[in-house]
Specification:
Number of strands: 14
Radius of gyration: 26 Å
Helix content: 10-25%
Distance between the termini: 63 Å
Strand content: over 45%
Structural class: alpha+beta
Length: about 250
């Protein structure tokens, strides 16, 4: 519990109590962290044993894809990496709260993966709730999400056709796009860069491909739609595979 200013005797008693509890809590924390790392180490080989041991029979597990498993489905999902794949997952930035027979561990997962010589990285955040029953700690609930990462900006060479010309004329994207009367967004091209502006907020449109763009730190994509004559007639704001269409006004 937090220490507060007060009579000297109360302060000393609180301090002594905190230090007396610290060793047990620290030992529990370290053991649960060891078990957690063991779980992720076992994913490479597909070893299901730690998952059978450390997850309670009545557990619930929600992964970064939005899937929810009971223990049977969770264990069945633990399989070895395919041939040509390798990797590791390491725990970082751990926050723990241990109160009686309940422990909550919240932490980052740094994943490195090699697929036939190509290296990939990903970051996740997971929160596990452990319960101690009959003297044994097991996970009763776990939930994970993946941190959003901006896609890679396309290299200039990726935006050119075989003749060395731009695949798409950026100037064709420039214009005012309207969602409804009075609700507009403006796309401009300045100093070799594309920008989108709404209500005074101006953001650069970074190319993922020659016709797909993103804004730094903003999940989703900006695409441009063409009519039957090959002219841009709309801007598509795609969010989680749902589209908001802004029609080109001028």
């Amino acid at each position: 519990m937090p220490l507060r200013l007060g009579p000297f005797g109360v302060f000393c008693f609180s301090l002594a109590t905190a230090f007396a509890a610290a060793p047990d809590e620290s030992a529990t924390r370290q053991e649960l962290l060891r078990r957690t790392q063991e779980l992720y180490d076992s994913l490479v080989s597909g070893n299901q044993e730690p998952w059978k041991k450390y997850f309670a029979d009545d557990c619930t597990f929600s992964d970064e894809k939005g899937r929810t498993f009971d223990k049977q489905k969770l264990v069945a999902d633990i399989t070895p990496l395919p041939k040509g794949y390798s990797g590791a997952i390491k725990i970082d930035n751990v926050i723990s709260r241990i109160i009686g027979d309940t422990a909550v561990l919240s932490y980052d997962l740094n994943e490195t993966e090699t697929i036939f010589g190509q290296n990939l990285r990903a970051r996740y955040h997971t929160t596990d709730t452990w319960l101690r029953r009959n003297g044994e700690w097991q996970i009763i609930a776990s939930q994970a999400h993946r941190y959003y990462e901006d896609p890679a900006v396309a290299a200039p060479s990726q935006l050119l056709n075989s003749a060395g010309a731009a695949r798409t004329s950026t100037s064709s994207f420039v214009g005012v796009y309207e969602l409804t009367p009075g609700q507009t967004r403006t796309v401009t091209f300045e100093n070799g860069k594309l920008f989108i502006e709404r209500n005074g907020k101006k953001e650069e449109l970074l190319p993922e491909t020659s016709e797909i763009f993103f804004r730094k730190g903003v999940e989703g994509r900006i695409l441009f739609r063409y009519d039957a004559n090959g002219k841009v007639d709309a801007l598509i704001d795609r969010r989680n595979n749902e589209d908001v269409i802004w029609r080109k006004a001028k």
